[in-house]
Design brief:
Blueprint: H1 7-21, E1 24-31, E2 34-46, E3 52-56, E4 62-64, H2 70-79, H3 86-92, H4 100-112, H5 130-134, H6 147-160, H7 173-186, E5 193-195, E6 201-206, H8 207-219, H9 223-234, H10 236-239, H11 245-252, E7 257-261, E8 265-269, E9 275-280, H12 288-298, E10 309-312, E11 315-322
Antiparallel strand pairs: 1-2, 1-11, 2-3, 2-9, 4-6, 5-6, 7-8, 8-9, 10-11
Helix pairs in contact: 2-6, 2-7, 2-9, 3-4, 3-6, 3-9, 4-6, 7-8, 8-9
């Protein structure tokens, strides 16, 4: 990027961007009545009609949505002819916990395609689930939380006769199709492309663009979007895992779609199109529960209990408070 103007004008522009990128405070950690830590970020809540109900921070600045984008990637695969079961589709959209159930569904997509785990090109890892992780041996590709997405990518390639070795390349037909779907949904041209932790291409968008995308996927009559949302809503355990925020809330709130991403990104949509997206600047997710609870209270859903207690000497001495209103 070339910026015209004097050095002082450039510095002013840089300082303005840096200030905007810091966002606004979304949550505070309170210990014994005193604020100990702050979590800032960017947050937008869309009304059912797509208008902005509430915004904090710079919702127009680009960011990487990380794994919150998986449903959009799944749409690109389906648009390219992918055929899978609802359970398999939910796992494609998941950052799964790596339990035996999750791995068996990922493996079924490979088997259906005449492949095995050796075809996967995602980064090996241990399961996310605490119990499985502590007893796990060497990292594997199947246990890694993105194995469902990568198995879906491979199955899409098999069904189209596309090269399997290079399916992660940005110029592969699969990734070109996913990028086109991404731009159509976000209503933004891709600002930047990088590599996600799993090794697949990752596209940047704004917080607002991400909210627009998931509102569209929720309310659209497009059969592909309906198939994705239905599969995820019917299989919340596959979208995340037992005990995790995504699975708990999708079970508790009828019709909710929810998906988290690394570096503290969260997406949630209700069937009528109301959509929440936020990105916490420090990349930490400990305030997710209180922020989501406060946002849903804005929508009149006041039955959640996702508070976080601050302990001192093993006893409650404070809490994390959301500051979004």
């Amino acid at each position: 990027m070339v910026i015209a103007g004097t050095a002082s004008e450039y510095l002013m522009s840089f300082n303005f961007f840096q200030s905007r990128a810091q966002g606004e405070i979304l949550a505070e950690v309170v210990r014994h009545g005193m604020v100990e830590s702050l979590h800032s970020g960017h947050l937008v809540m869309l009304n059912a009609d797509g208008s902005i109900h509430l915004q904090k921070g710079a919702i127009e600045l680009p960011m990487y949505g990380r794994s919150s984008l998986k449903a959009m990637q799944a749409a690109g695969m389906l648009r390219s002819g992918l055929k899978v079961t609802p359970e398999q589709l939910a796992l494609i959209c998941a950052s799964h916990s790596g339990t035996a159930l999750h791995q068996s569904v990922a493996k079924s997509m490979l088997t259906d395609s005449g492949l095995d785990e050796s075809a996967l090109r995602n980064t090996p890892d241990k399961p996310l689930a605490e119990e499985e992780r502590k007893n796990w041996g060497e990292p594997t590709r199947l246990a890694q939380n993105c194995s469902g997405k990568h198995a879906g990518m491979l199955r899409t390639c098999v069904m189209n006769g596309w090269d399997l070795e290079s399916y992660r390349s940005p110029d592969h037909p699969l990734q070109i199709a996913i990028k086109a779907e991404f731009e159509a949904l976000t209503e933004e041209s891709v600002f930047a492309t990088t590599v996600d932790g799993c090794g697949a291409p990752l596209f940047a968008t704004s917080t607002l663009g991400l909210a627009r995308a998931f509102r569209t996927m929720t309310i659209s009559q497009d059969a592909i979007y309906q198939e994705i949302m239905s599969a995820c809503r019917a299989n919340p355990l596959l979208v995340a895992g037992e005990g995790r925020l995504t699975t708990r809330l999708m079970r508790a709130i009828p019709g909710l779609f929810m998906k988290e991403g690394a570096e503290a990104v969260e997406v949630a949509t209700l069937p009528d199109g109301r959509t929440l997206v936020f990105k916490i600047v420090d990349g930490g997710n400990r305030a997710f529960g209180p922020i989501v609870q406060a946002a849903f209270k804005e929508w009149g859903i006041d039955s959640l209990d996702e508070g976080v207690t601050v302990l001192g000497g093993g006893e409650p001495v404070g809490s994390i408070r959301a500051l979004i209103a």
